[in-house]
Every structure is written in C-alpha cells, then in structure tokens.
Amino acid sequence: MSTRRPIWIAALYSLALLTCSISVAKADRRVALVVGNSNYSNASLFLANPKNDATDVAAALRGVGFEVLQAIDANKRDLDLNMAKFARLATDADAALFYYAGHAVQYQGRNFLMPTDAEVEDEISFRYQMTPLDDVRAALDRGDGVKIVILDACRNNPIVNALRRKKKSGDSRAIDAVRGGLAKIDKAQGMVVAYSTAADEVAADGDGRNSPFTSAFLKRLKEPGLEIEQLFRRVAADVNAQTGGRQRPETYVSLLSNYYLNQTDRIAFDKIKDSPDPAVLQDFIAKFSTSSYVPEAQNRIQRIEAAIRERQNQEARQREAARLAEEQRKAEREAALRKLAEQEEALRKQETLRAQAAAEKVRKEREAAQAQEEQRLRLVAEKERKEREAAKAQEEQRVKLAAERERKLREEAAQLLAEQARTKIAAIDRKEPTSPSLAGISTDIRTLPPPTEAAPAPGDPCDRDGALLAQLRSNPSIEAVTELERSLSCEKLRAQILRLRESLSAVANAAPAAAQIKPVVEKIAPPPAVTLAPPPPPAGPKQEAAPKPPEPPKVAVATVAPAPECKKDEARLAKIRANPAHADLAALERDLGCERLRPQIVRLRESLPKEIAKETAKDAPQPDQPSAAANPPTLQSAQSAPSGAKPAQPAPIVQVRSCDEERATLAKLRASQSREDVVRFERELACEQLRPQVIRLRESLSGG
User: Fold this and answer.
1) Most CB atoms closer than 10 Å: which of 32, 52, 183, 375?
2) What's phi and psi for 114, nearest 5 deg?
3) Distance (Å, rounded) from C-alpha 60 to C-alpha 42?
4) How high is the pLDDT of residue 291?
C-alpha cells in the first residue's frame, strides 16, 4: 500500500495540471481576417491564385485554433464591413492576424489594398476607392496580444504602368509617388509583418493552385512547435529556392517573447507534461520532433526514469527488510512452538497418569456395580418367576371359569331355542290351524315344555313386528326378513331389520367363496321356525278364520371340512383366544397355512388391549396348555338332526355343533338387546361365519 500511494498522488496531481492546462488553452483567444481578391471589375487585373490562397489559409488557421473571418473577391463595401467586424472581434484578443492576397499599391509611402470594384484614374482614387493598410493596423491595435500581418499582395499591377504612362503625357501631378511594391510598415511593439517579397518589389502569382509564398506558408504552418520568426525564415528560404532567387520574402518581428502559430504541440504537451508514464512523453517527442517542448519532455522522461529507479530501489529495500523481519518472526514463532510442545508433553504425561488412576478407579467401581447388578437381576428373576407362576395359575383359573361360563351360555341358548320352539307350537295349537303344512311338525318339538315368557299381544304393531324380528333373529332367513321389511308397520324397527338383512346377505355372499376349497358339506336342519301372521283387523260380529301362515323356509348351513393345516391353525388360534398374547399371535400369523383364518387373526390382534398385550407377552401359555375354546363342548341332541340325514364325519360335526351353540347364544343376545353382552360375545366368538351378524347386531344396538 505504501508503494502505490506516491503513484496515485502523482496521477491526481497530473490530472489537476492537465485540467489547468486545458483551461489555459481554451482561454487563449485568437482571431483572423483572411481576404483573397481574384476577379476584379477591370478584367486586365484578374489574378488566378488569391482566391485559392485565401481559402486554404483560412482552413489552415482554423486548424491551429484561429477564429477566422473570410472574404473572397471583396469590393470596397464588403472589405470595409469585414474590417469593422474584424476590429470588433480583435478587441482584447490574445492574437490577431490579417492575411491579404491580391493587388496592392504604394502611394506616397503608404500601402493601399485594392478592392475588386476599384477604378484608379488618378491619385484621388487612392483616397476614396482603395483601402489603406493603416485601417488594418488600427483594427489590430484593438487586441492585447500578438499582431500579425501577412501580405501576399505585391503582384504585377497594370494600373501602375497605366498611371506611369499618364505621367509621361502630362495628365497627372503626383504620379511619381506610385510604386508597384509595398512600403515597409513602421515597426510597432508586439507586431509581426511578413511580406511575400522585398520592399518595392513585385511578387509572383505562380502557376499552381497557390502562389509560391502561400504554398511555403501553408507547408510550414503544419509543423507544430515552430516559433513564428523561425517559421517565416523557413518560408523565405522555401520561396527563394522555388523562384530561383527572383523573390525574396521579408519579415519584421517586434516581440518580447516567442510565439507559435501552430500550438498543437503546446496543447498536447500541456496535457502530458506532468504524466508519470515515460511512454506518453516518448510518443509526444516522436510526433512533435520540431517542437520547442521536446527538450522539456526529454528532461521529464529522465526525471521519471530516475524516480522509477529510486522507487524500485526503495521497494527492493523494503522487500529485503520485510524478508528479514519475516525470518525473525518465523524463528521466534518456531522457538515459541518448541517451548509450547515441551509444555504440552509435560502436561500430556501428567494427564496420562491421572487418566490411568481414574481408569483404575472406574474399573473397580464397575466391578462392584456389576456384582451388585447381578445380585439385583437374580432377585428380579426370582420375583418374575414367582409372578409368572402366580399369573399362570390365575390364568388357568380364568380359562376354567371362561369354559364354565361358555358351557352355561350354550345350555341357556339351547334352552332358549327349545322354549321359543314350544312357544311357537303352543301359539299354533291355540289358533287350531287347518293348514296341512303344520301336520308334519315333529312330535318332539310339540312336546317341549311351555315357554317361560308370554308372547306379546298382537294388538300393538311395534310389539307384533318386534316378535317377528326376534323369531327371524333366532332362525334367520333372508326371504323372511325381506318379507317382514316389505310389510313393516313399526318404522323404528326398520334400521334393525336393514342391518339383519345386510348381515344375512354378507353370509350368503361368503358361502360361494368357502365352497371353492372342496368342502365336505352336511346339511343339518335347525328346529323349525314358525312365522306368526299379523293379526287381522277388527271385524263384525262374525269373525272369519285366520289365513294359513306360510311355511318358514329351512336354512341349510354349509360346513367345510378343514384341511390338516386349517385344523392345526384353528387349534393354535383357539389357544391364543383363551390366553391372548401378541407374541403368540404374531408367530401364528407368520406361520399361517390356512388363509381363511387370516381375517380372524387380524381382528383378534386389533382387539387386544395394550395393557394385556404387555402382560401376556411375557407369560404366554405353553403349547401343551388346554384351551376351552380349542375343544368346545358339544351338544348330543337328537332333536338337532332330521331323521333322514346321513351320519357326518367327526370333524364337521364338531364345527357345526360349535357354530350351532354360538348361533343359539346370538339368538339369545338378539332377544336381550344388551350391547355389553354382544361386545363380550364378539370378543370370544369362535365361529367366524357368525361374525358379520354379530358386528351388525352390535352396530344396530349402537345406532338405537
């Protein structure tokens, strides 16, 4: 950062100086009046080049920073008007220049410029038709700076010859004072006067576009850095060489300091003179080799190069000092690191000793804790063993009680079925039916003991429909349920009838699926169901006999003979139902070979409470434990099979009798209308054929 700061300061300083230089260059105001007369009213006075000379000089002066007024073929009025404009423009100007190309004469030591409309007859014409050069000098004197007059006007003038001829004939008086060349202008401070030829001599007009003098002036004006006196000396040398010595230009300079017409080198140098870049100054020297600023630019380059060398040396010294300082810091840092490493090594040894002592202490504590934990685990294991034995004994007692309760429920269901059958038979007997369809009712059913509850009076429609619904629940038939739904009078029972019909439809739809396993089917006719006809409307004194009730349809129950895998899985499922445990249930579901039991396993797993699942996971029953659900008691009733039925195989009979017992329990629950008993029965259900009916019975009781 310290090495870049001088460069930035130098750049800012150069920018400030460049701004000031540009401001100074813009403040230098230079004006010029350029006149070129070629076409005179007197055809004998025609000149070819003055018009071209004036045009080219005006363009060149504009190129070097002059504000130019231009007059081509100006008559007396135009010349006077342009002189007035030039006088105003030259006021307070830093430089004022007047250039004239055309005819001019000298009379009585005074110089006169000849407008294009001048008619010179005698000496009086000079005063009133010519423009004296003194007027030009008066206009230039209004400026504060350099005054420059360039006259390329000493051309061959036929008027002088004509006036001289008049003198010989005695027609004019003061004609002797007329000269073809111009007289010298009195020197004045700050003025430069350049003549295209020597005094009292005539300048050549030339054969090219420009006169010899103007050609040389335009050539040297393009060279920047030429001091004005040096410029006109080179112009005089060029004209002398071009004309072979016949025309010798003269210049009068009265300046206290150097002045440059072409100042493009000064403007360019002002912009770069304070630049810190030597290449910029070298470019200036190559472009403006004749400029007076070349020595200064060379000195500036030498100073910059010396400053650069000094700066490079200083930077080298600084880099060397920084390198030495960095090496010293590195040595100090290495010494500090070595000392720190030694301290860390001592601390590490101390820490190792402390860690060994702490590890020995922890080992002893861990051994003591391990011995204490082993003692605690032995006590806990002993306590758990005793708790498992107590729980096992309690579970065995619960299983026995559950088996006894199930046996009682089956007996009550069988008794309820018998009572309902006797009630139906007694009702039919009281009405003395004449229909022959009742003649074939079994004598055993007619001799059942009388029911314990009286049938509801047929007077109330809801009581009558409720009695019919209870009969259909005990002996379900989808055709009879549909008929009851069609003739229902009590609307509050319609929801229960709808759910009963849906449960029977689900069982009917499930039957074809079960038939695909090649079942061995045995039809066992349940006790005949009696459909009570609705009571007739009240009649007159004479009452007709009641219509014959239709014979209730008989329901055939299909029993599938389970495969060996199903027998094994059913036995495991029955044991798990008697003693539920999530671990045993998961093992059965993983090893299941009878896919028709999977829905029962899923429902059993979902029905297990979390608390029981946690307790039974530890104390799962052994595989050799007896289960009441696995071997349900069977009813050896001769009334449950028709006389003409063939003897069934042992396994299907057990399944049929188990489903019959649970169907009787379901009929009892339909009559009792107790939701808690239904939920408990659903949890302990073994016959999966009845599960849809149980679910819909629970839903009907929940919906009211």
Assistant:
1) 32
2) -105, 110
3) 30
4) 77
Three-class DSSP category at 34: strand
Strand bridging mode 30-36 / 110-113: unpaired
Neighbours of 253 (CB within 10 A): 16
Instruction: Encode 95-125: b = buried (16+ Cβ within 10 Å), e = exposed.
Output: bbbbbbbbbbbbbeebbbbbbbbbebeebeb
> Which of 630, 693, 635, 629 lies closest to 417 in space, CA to CA?
635
Which residue in 139, 130, 157, 156 sits closest to 75, CA to CA? 130
Confidence of residue 164 (pLDDT cuts 50, 70, 90): low
The closest of 194, 202, 32, 41 to 114, measured between CA atoms, is 41
In tens, the pLDDT along 502-520 reads 777 655 555 444 444 344 3
Comparison of pLDDT for 522 and 421, the residue scoring more: 421
DSSP 227: B
Lowest mean pLDDT among 203-217, 247-261, 518-532: 518-532
- What are the backbone dihedrals phi and psi of residue 60, each rounded to the nearest 5 degrees, phi first? -65, -40
Please give the DSSP secondary-structure letter assigned to residue 438.
Answer: G
Q: What is the pLDDT of residues 213-251, one digit of tens each?
A: 999 999 999 888 888 999 999 999 999 999 888 888 999
Residue with tokens 């820490």: 351
Higher pLDDT, residue 661 or 165: 661
One DSSP character per residue, 595-636 reads GGGHHHHHHHHHHS-HHHHHHHHHSPPPTT---TTTS-----
Give the model's pLDDT for residue 33: 97
Instruction: Yes or no: say if 628 and 399 are a contact pair by the CB < 8 Å rule.
Output: yes
- What are the beta bridge partners of residue 105? 112
Rg (CA), the chain: 72
CA 704 to chain centre: 60
Query: Which of 87, 85, 79 has its CA nearest to residue 35?
Result: 79
Report the distance separating Cα 478 and Cα 399, nearest Å.
37
Least confident of 26-30, 310-314, 378-382, 384-388: 26-30
Q: What pTM did the predictor assign?
A: 0.43
Say if CB 199 and CB 184 are below 8 A apart.
yes
pLDDT greater than 60 at residue 368: yes
Read out DSSP for 356-408? HHHHHHHHHHHHHHHHHHHHHHHHHHHHHHHHHHHHHHHHHHHHHHHHHHHHH
Strand-by-strand arrangement of the 67-72 sheet: 67-72, 30-36, 95-101, 146-152, 191-195, 250-254
Q: Which element (helix H / strand E) includes 191?
A: strand 191-195
Distance, in Å, from the CA atom of 619 to the CA atom of 288, rounded to the nearest integer, reads 116
Q: Where are the alpha helices (DSSP H) in 432-547?
A: 443-446, 461-474, 478-486, 494-515
3-state secondary structure string across 403-418: HHHHHHHHHHHHHHHH
